Each structure stands twice: as C-alpha cells, then as structure tokens.
Amino acid sequence: MITMKLQRMGGVVVLAAAAVLLVAVVAVAAEELVPVTDKDLESNTSMWNLYQRWRSVYNVSLDLVETEPRFETFKEDARYVNEFNKRDMTYKVGLNQFSDLTDEELDSGMYTGALPEDADNVSSSIGSSGMTDDDDDELLASAAGKKVPSKWDWRHHGAVTSVKNQGHCGSCWAFSMVASVEGINAIKTGKLRTLSEQEVLDCSDDGSCKGGHTYKAFDHAIKPGLALDHHEHPPYYPAYVAKKKQCRFNPKKPVVKINGKRMMRDTTEAQLRWRVYKQPVSVVVEANRAFKRYSKGVFSGPCGTRLNHAVVVVGYGTTKEGIDYWIVKNSWGKSWGENGYIRMKRHVGTKAGLCGIYIKPMYPIKK
Known about the structure:
With 367 residues, the protein is of the alpha+beta class. It folds into 2 domains: 38-88; 133-365, Cathepsin B, Chain A, CATH 3.90.70.10. It contains 10 helices and 14 strands. The chain has helices at residues 19-24, 44-57, 64-84, 103-106, 137-144, 172-189, 197-203, 214-222, 269-278, 289-293, and strands at residues 4-9, 12-17, 91-93, 125-126, 152-153, 226-227, 255-256, 260-263, 281-285, 294-299, 309-318, 324-329, 341-345, 362-365. The strands form 4 sheets. Strands 3, 5, 9, 10, 11, 12 and 13 form a 7-stranded mixed β-sheet that branches. Helix 5 packs across helix 9 (269-278) and helix 6 (172-189) crosses helix 8 (214-222). The longest helix is centred in the N-terminal third of the chain and has 21 residues, at 64-84. It is globular and about 60 Å long. 44% of the residues are buried. Belongs to the peptidase C1 family.
C-alpha cells in the first residue's frame, strides 16, 4: 500500500506520495515495440515479416479475406513512419494498434468518441453544496499575472491513475471525465481511487460506444456518483469490456461524487496552465492520423479543430531545447505514445491551441 499525506504548495493542496509512487510513475517513452528500418522496406517479403512481427505484438488475428487489404494499408503506414522519422521534427511517429486501419476506420469514432456539446449543456452546473470561491480564479490569476511553477506533473503528486484502454469503443468521453474526477478526488481527500468507466458507459443515458458528451457526463459524477473500479478493494463494479452493458449500479456501495462542473471558454495558455496547476483538466482535441501515429517527443501537428477525442491534461513542462508542452493522458493503453501519454506543444500561435486544446477545457468542482 502506498502512503500519502497532504501538503500545501503555492496555495494548492498536493498529494505527497511515498518514494515508491515516484518510482512507479512513468517518466518518458517506452521502448518502441515494432521499430521500422530501411531493411524492413527492401522487399515485399521483408515487409511481410515486419507485418507478422507487428501482428504478434498487437495480437491481431485476421482471416484470409482481410489479410491482403490490411497488409497494403500497413505497408503505406510503415513507409510513412520510416520517412517521417528521418526529418528534423520535435516528435517521432511509430507503428501502433492503428497501423493497418484505413482513414475511414480511424474516422469512424470507434477509437475516439467525443460528440459536440449541446448548447444547453455548456453552462456551469453545481451541486446543492454550491461552488468554492476560487471557481473563476484562473481568470483572476491570469489577469493579475500570478506565477505558477515552470513545470508541473500531477503524476508526481498522486492524482493520476494508471493509463487505461478504451479499446474498440467510442468511450473517450467517459475516460476523460473519470480521469479528471479521479484527480480532484485524490487532491481533496488524499486518496487516489480508481473509478469505473464501465459503470459510466452502462448507466449513462447520454453516451455509448458510438460516442458521448464529455461535459454532460460530469452530471453522472454529481449524481448518483462514480463507482469504484473492479481493481479497488473491495471491488465494486465489473471490469471494463468496451461494450455497453446493463447498468449494475448499487447506490448502497461506496461512490465518489463531485459538487459541480465548469467549462472554460475562450481559454488562453496562461489560464489553462493555472487550472492544470490546480487539478487535472479534461480537454477535447482533434485526434487525426498524425495524432494517432505519435510515438514520442513533443507533438506539433499538423492537426485542426475538428474536435473528436476527449483526453486529460495532467501537467506541463519545457524540454531542454526550450519547447513548451502539455502532458496529456490518453485512453489508448500504455503501448501507445509515451507509455500512454502524449506531450503536445504549447505556444503554437493560434487562439484554439494545438488540435483545438483551448476550445473546451472542462473540470469537476469538489469541496
């Protein structure tokens, strides 16, 4: 068991975890699982051998009808990865679970799932206990020029659970919401609890594997609350299966609740940085093919503002070369990106930020 204690730093309640937690925190990128070399691209035979290695790593099983078109798509992706990584860029791409999927399949929403927020859903919502006084302090802090640390990572302060995997289900909206609630609950209570996306998926009337509204999903955390994941002790809700099942919520079992939610509008880099310093923040971005190919480094696009994927900003920092970035937790498993994370470039010169990250930041409120 990891022992935690509350500390206050710069006006923020922080979880100081034991050294074992800091050792467990994933630092940078994992070893590339299926690297691509010039030799792999020399012939159809060498390319086929690369494809078989990739399939063994990602447990891909295909029938004969599917194999040939999948292989053709994979070859195109492997060539692109090899050529891209020879460029002088701030990030690298790699082969991953998406490497034999067509653009149409990637755009189907089954690996993303954030639907556009309805106009009626974007106003603030608060529970019966009301909001805290610092509800809008990200605006005040920015206006007053209040300084925050030059780097911050909630993984080092016990407010981020392990990277999860939404699988072949457009449920990123649930994973993003749950991760931000896990964060604020840990900050406020001193206990990092793993909460159940399966319960949200099963019991939410608003979302499914075909997508959902991230901001609306926070209402589920206000009432009836989020169930503990099956890994918790005692276990509460069954394991995630990437399918919407019958709701098995039991109000008599322990749940985690929040008091309210808020969506930030017309956000600036400074305002989001201040809010991230206070807690992990849900954001919605455009996850295009460039985003999906990401392997390591500071992602700089190209990407637009066709928002389709909900993720969580858990920190920020600057490379030794002086490139500012956001630390973003994804829900595509630990084999994607930097052990499940992507570093996204800050200060890209657009109001919306890279991939639209400043358009719809949202966060839970908990007393």
